[in-house]
Amino acid sequence: MKPRKNKVQKGFLPSSRRALLGAAVSAGSGFLLSAFLPGLPLLKASKAQDAATGAIFSPNAFIRIDAQGKVTFIIRYAEMGQGIYTGISILLAEELDVELDQVFLEAAPADLAYVDSVAGEEETGGSSSTRDSWIPLREAGAAARMMLIAAAAHHWGVTEDTCQARNGRVFHRDSPRSLSYGELAEAAAHQAVPVKVSLKSPADFKLIGTNPRRLDTKAKTDGSARFGIDVQITGMKIGRIMACPVKGGRLTGYDRIAALAVRGVVDVITLPDAIAVIGNHMWAAIKGLEAAHPRWDYGLNAVTSTNDIVARMKKASEQSGVLAVKNGDADAALKQADIRIDAVYELPFLAHAALEPINTTLHIRQDGADVWVGTQVPGRARQEVADATGLPPESISVHNHLIGGGFGRRLDSNSIGQAARFAKQVPYPVKLIWTREEDITQDQFRPFYYDRISAGLTRDGAISGWHHRTTGSAVTARWYPEGMQKGLDPDAVEGAAQTPYALPDQLVEFVRDEPDAVTTLWWRGVGPTHNVFVVESMIDELAHQAGHDPLAFRKKLAAHQPRALKVLEEAAKQSGWGKVLPPGHGMGIALHYSFQTWAATVLEVAVEQSGQIRLVHVHTAVDCGPVVFPDGVVAQIQGGLIFGLTMALYNEITLKDGRVEQTNFHNYRMMRLNEAPDISVHLVPNPDAEIGGIGEVGTVAAAPALANALFAATGKRLRRIPFAKQFGGEKA
């Protein structure tokens, strides 16, 4: 996913709590406390909102308590399997003093204030949800609790320090009296918002650090959970979309009569570069599009291949780039090194390939529009529809749904804009779906990276000189131009510009080279998944050249990082690092700091004589600071590792004649259950540290740990992904 924007940094909280919190009430309706996240403005009431419901504000995330005692958390983050609905709810419920089973959830609405804010926007990415919420949402819960206590104390004519909140009620310590939050809701809303909010001591936590059942488990188990693709609207039709297979091409013709002759087809609509066939059901739309037999002018990219793109990147990489880091004189140190290693690493284009393919349901009218979709950026989605239709953004409602896997793909809303341009041509609601083939071939891909790295060793095995030049696309320049730093994409060098190690005489550069035939986008852990593979592979190679144990070599280089040493030691202990392994087995280690989290991973691999790679066991030690939801952390590390290992073993997107060659899971394959290793996640407690992110940490560790393990098993150093086909043992 995407990196954090530079304008949202540590120490962001406003000096006045009134800039952070607001409360409102409507007669008989209850209590609304709104919590505003970093840098986002306090919003005024919308005339379109119904005062009778008490919904006076439209903030990023807020608590609503009605007169019946129903507690609703409105969450600004998208739930796409990462468990954030549960994690964020734990933060709010902890300080509000309610149990999770008392909580109801709603997805936050899109609002232009999120998009236009200087500090950021309404989006889910960069493993940032819990990090951004750790203080603000706890303060929101605590403020609500304090206001409820104040209301109860006033009602009883007692002091607030004699009252205590617990499980959705306020109790008077000196008498048997108590009142529910519902009974106090209206009065609480008239209390002043606390200027100073008292947060619980970690010793008093009841929910934070525990493992409640996930709030989405029941719905996902009984089938009541609704993803974007599940939306059903009265009168809705279903459309299948096909865009030109080559970027920059256009539609030149199709057989409308043949398409309409297919039973169930109701319409055929087009854009300059795409066609959609609308039917009463999906099968009609599929068969209708086949009958339409669209024809294309493939344009200038029709002769482009992956080899062309790599050749251009190779040439670009020979030139100096934009400076990211310069310490000492790397070139001079390399010339004086006793041993020098010069290497090139290549990482391919990658698809997101989420389980739920791209889909958008829209009903566009003259006076406004409704959009039902799963998106990581509701504000951008809303603006895309506005741009496509000419409607005022405030007339467009985005109904966000559960997402069946995002991985950064739904940080872009281009598919929603495309759907809106189609949907405005018809008067009825329409669900527009990309097939799996469309989802893969029309994806916006993780950039191809071509890295040159040189490092030297002194006679006694110390690193002497380090030069890392990354060549690739700058996603930041397209997605968030303000984030570029004098031509430098911070994401492209993340994990290279800052490593866990003390590297004297270091030079890190970025050469921007944009491919014409594809569009690039964030992909789970973009910068670190690329750079940590390169850095950790080179560190491992240097250790072996110096005749040092890879673990000991890392510990010496990271001696100034106590948190790094702890995760290294824990991973080594749990994995039995140094034990005698069977023939064909090897252990690889990788250390990284990304998304404000420290992690060390040890992977054991076995390579059969046929070349087949078998993943045996992975041990990952994680220090993410305070742990809100331990089971959630473990699950995310496990999922991230599987995602990253799948990529490292099997995945790449290639082009021939301008077209993506991979079309479905038969040639863009996923790891199978019997191929998955045992995974053990070991949490290293550090409650006093700054809280870190988790969603992409496992993915970052996968490729370098695997590459180093394969070297240990076979003596073969892999510098190009994917790995399996280089051993000749890949199964179809």
UniProtKB/TrEMBL annotation:
UniProt xrefs under Pfam families: MoCoBD_1, MoCoBD_2
PROSITE patterns noted in UniProt: TAT
Protein name: Aldehyde dehydrogenase
Positions of the Aldehyde oxidase/xanthine dehydrogenase a/b hammerhead domain: 222-300
InterPro entries xref list: Ald_Oxase/Xan_DH_a/b, AldOxase/xan_DH_MoCoBD1, AldOxase/xan_DH_MoCoBD2, AldOxase/xan_DH_Mopterin-bd_sf, N-heterocyclic_Hydroxylase, OxRdtase_Mopterin-bd_su_IorB, TAT_signal
Gene Ontology molecular functions: oxidoreductase activity
Lineage, top ranks: Bacteria, Pseudomonadati, Pseudomonadota, Alphaproteobacteria, Acetobacterales
